[in-house]
Write a structure and sequence with these properties.
Helix content: 40-55%
Distance between the termini: 61 Å
Structural class: alpha+beta
Strand content: 5-15%
Number of helices: 25
Largest sheet: 9 strands, mixed
Shape: elongated
Number of strands: 18
CATH topology of the domain at 240-337 and 415-457: Nucleotidyltransferase, domain 5
CATH class of the domain at 240-337 and 415-457: Alpha Beta
Radius of gyration: 35 Å
């Protein structure tokens, strides 16, 4: 027992005192001196680890000037006694861990001394020591290192859940007891980070957009509030998307879905590139799915994009969006998604009528090439089914010009008759984002997903430039198109060329102006006939299937005519530039005539790429030994300090000061979005499936989040109006800069 100990006061109910057995060099002693309180904590915590208990900080005594601590106690984690607070209702019934253990050390700093000295060491405990196999569960012996925090953030950016993160750390360290923390610590870490960002979400998003705009003036964004200085909606498009619209802005797919913690509607506007891949043209966040909101989004889209309105826009049957399109894009053909309409036949029609006549409805919709033929077949099927007065069928027939192929094929749509690409983009982006994301989290992860999407386009460009497609048919026209079209589009053309060899041409009529042919083919044991018209004056051929007008690739029926007339090369009028390998070769300018470039400073990209490769090589070499890791870590810390001094020099003071004084909007409140029906279900069946409803917002029974009164209460934590601007020197921006480069 050491001098000044209080072991006699620390005894169990049976009077037993537990004295840990630890080597003398690891055991505290009165008179030991330390340069700082952190060293005291680390030494006592190390002793506690060998002894079999945990520690925590206790009372402190500050000097008169309140600038330094003169006395500090470090106690056993079981110090103190449980006191029940009768005035507060506890949701969790936690166990009692404290048993008034008196084990502790006390350090003091005397006048004139710069070191802390141990003045008291109580070695005895009134409880048993924790076995070594459970030591890693005590709080003082759990610690998440900085490198682990960074790796946790990186794993979270690819939507890896916490339990899988812990599994990765387990494999990396060689066991759960060697990780250094438990799963709950990761949950607490994420809650802490989210708590720091709360009420600063819009501020970080605005800073990010401003930084991107400084990097490239072609970056466009617009943020608007709701009249109460609170975020309501935003729109953005980068330079790459704007250039893509200049090349492929003839067809646009618009869709909406919810993927953030505020339930804001995310509305990406999509297009199709020369490889037939889906690309992002612009994005928006909307708090309301109203006509006014969609009109605002489309007007911002027109301001941001070079060129005119798109030729075709494909959406689902959203009434507010339909009105907005007619206002913002009066010359654009608005096509409704045919899949959304045909999938409702099983719900809207009587069961017997659907089973008996659905095949005939399909033939009327898909197997007709002209309007009159469709109208006749539709009326025949409706009459046979006894559904002439069916309100939904009547409404769909009135809208036939917007969705029936026989009516809509005259407008170019890159071969798309539904918003299936938009639905596919949902599943693609949801690999990277989740409903728990803040706005800043969403944008960071969305940009990562966007970079993966653009990487696929780059790979396709490389394949076209590096390889030559193999031709299945040894025809000059086929070889010509293999050199002009991208790989994907050439394969589609070649299939049409192969099928043209099985078509049979029959002269129907001929006069001084035109020649009409009937082109027949056997398909699914049926003979289908298309009509090809060749106009002599304009030297132009057109087909009743309208594949060229709809897809942009010449159809097999016209190709059969070319083969008959021994036309060896494809005329230029039938080759669409948007499908060619050189589709992105021309310049794209904004409204002021300035060229839009992907990167305003290509030298910056070269420097970044060079330094990234160098840093990667250095890290790989350092990982080969512990000494190398320590050397690299010390060097990087020293370099980071020097770079910070360089960045914070006199030349940057003015920019930093103006940035910190920017007024930002408040974070949005959680909104109530439009419901998305999964099908028609009876009220009784709904009640049986639903059972007891629990609100995810407040946890109470009897309502769900859509009817929760807490959504509109100012006391809700997520809607807290109290917000303190983040200064540019705040550590939050350090993490931000590491991912996106420094903000000026």
């Amino acid at each position: 027992m050491y001098g000044g100990s209080e072991s006699d006061e620390c005894a169990t109910a049976n009077g037993r005192v537990y004295i840990p057995e630890v080597r003398n060099e690891e055991t505290p002693a009165v008179g030991m001196k330390f340069d700082s309180l952190d060293l005291v904590y680390n030494f006592y915590n190390r002793y506690a680890f060998f002894a079999g208990f945990g520690i925590r900080l206790h009372s402190s005594f500050w000097g008169k000037n309140k600038k330094e601590i003169l006395r500090k106690e470090f106690v056993c984690c079981k110090q103190g006694a449980y006191r029940k607070d009768e005035t507060r209702e506890r949701k969790r019934q936690r166990g009692i861990s404290r048993c008034n253990c008196k084990a502790k050390i006390v350090v003091v700093k005397t006048n004139g001394s710069k070191k802390y000295t141990i003045s008291l060491f109580a070695e005895g405990h009134n409880h048993k020591m924790t076995p070594s196999e459970r030591m890693h569960l005590l709080r003082s012996h759990r610690h998440i290192s900085d490198s682990t925090k960074v790796l946790t953030k990186q794993l979270g950016s690819v939507n890896i859940p916490i339990h899988q993160k812990v599994s990765i750390f387990e494999v990396q360290s060689g066991g759960m007891d060697k990780i250094g923390f438990i799963k709950k610590d990761i949950y607490n870490l994420e809650c802490s980070v989210n708590g720091k960002l709360r009420n600063h979400d819009v501020e970080l998003v605005t800073e990010y957009f401003m930084t991107e705009q400084k990097k490239n003036e072609a970056f466009y964004f617009k943020i608007e509030g709701d009249g109460h200085d609170r975020f309501s909606r935003c729109f953005w498009a980068d330079a790459t998307s704007k250039r893509a619209y200049g090349f492929y802005g003839d067809v646009v797919f618009d869709t909406t879905f919810n993927t953030n913690r505020y339930d804001l509607t995310f509305a990406p506007m999509l297009g199709v590139n020369n490889h037939g891949q889906t690309i992002v043209l612009a994005c928006a966040f909307l708090s309301k799915e109203t006509t006014e909101s969609f009109v605002w989004m489309f007007e911002e889209f027109k301001k941001a994009m070079p060129g005119g309105e798109p030729k075709t826009i494909i959406t689902d049957q959203d009434a507010a969006m339909a009105i907005a399109i007619s206002i913002a894009f009066p010359t654009t053909f608005h096509r409704l998604c045919i899949w959304h309409i045909t999938s409702k036949f099983s719900v809207k029609l009587p069961r017997d009528a659907y089973k008996e006549y659905w095949r005939e409805f399909q033939k009327a919709i898909w197997d007709t090439d002209n309007k009159d033929e469709f109208d006749a077949k539709w009326n025949i099927v409706v009459t046979k089914a006894g559904l002439t007065d069916h309100p939904w069928l009547s409404s769909m027939f009135d809208l036939r010009e917007s969705w029936v192929p026989a009516y809509a094929r005259q407008f170019f749509a890159a071969g798309m008759s539904s918003s299936q690409r938009a639905e596919g983009s949902h599943s693609f982006f949801k690999q990277y984002i989740s409903r728990r994301n803040s706005l800043m989290d969403f944008i960071i992860r969305f940009e990562r997903a966007l970079s993966h999407q653009r990487e696929k386009e780059l790979v396709a460009d490389h394949v076209d430039a590096f390889e030559v497609a193999q031709c299945l048919l040894p025809m000059l026209m086929n070889k010509q198109m293999a050199t002009l079209y991208t790989r994907t589009m050439f394969q589609k053309f070649e299939q049409e060329l192969i099928q043209s060899t099985t078509c049979f041409l029959e002269l129907k009529t001929e006069d001084a102006c035109k020649v009409v042919f009937n082109v027949s083919e056997r398909k699914n044991w049926e003979t289908r006939v298309a009509e090809v018209v060749y106009v002599k004056d304009s030297d132009h051929a057109s087909c009743s299937c309208r594949r060229f007008e709809f897809v942009g690739i010449i159809c097999k029926h016209i190709l059969a005519l070319f083969i008959r007339d021994q036309i060896e090369y494809m005329p230029d009028k039938y080759i669409l530039k948007r499908w060619k390998k050189t589709a992105k070769s021309r310049l794209v300018s904004d409204a002021n005539g300035n060229e839009i470039k992907d990167c305003a400073d290509p030298g910056l990209l070269i420097k970044r790429s060079t330094m990234s490769r160098l840093a990667s090589d250095v890290v790989e070499d350092a990982l080969m030994s512990e000494e190398g890791c320590e050397l690299l870590s010390e060097t990087l810390k020293s370099l980071q300090v020097k770079l910070k001094l360089l960045k914070d020099g006199p030349s940057n003071n003015e920019v930093g000061g103006s940035s910190s004084q920017t007024q930002y909007m408040k974070d949005p409140k959680r909104v109530r979005c439009k419901g998305r029906s999964k099908g028609v279900t009876g009220a009784k069946e709904k009640a049986m499936k639903r059972g007891i409803r629990h609100c995810r917002e407040c946890g109470r029974i009897g309502h769900d989040r859509r009817q929760c009164p807490a959504l509109n209460t100012p006391t809700s934590p997520s809607n807290n109006d109290e917000s303190t601007p983040i200064h540019r020197s705040d550590p939050l921006f350090n993490d931000f800069d590491k991912m996106h480069g420094p903000t000026e």
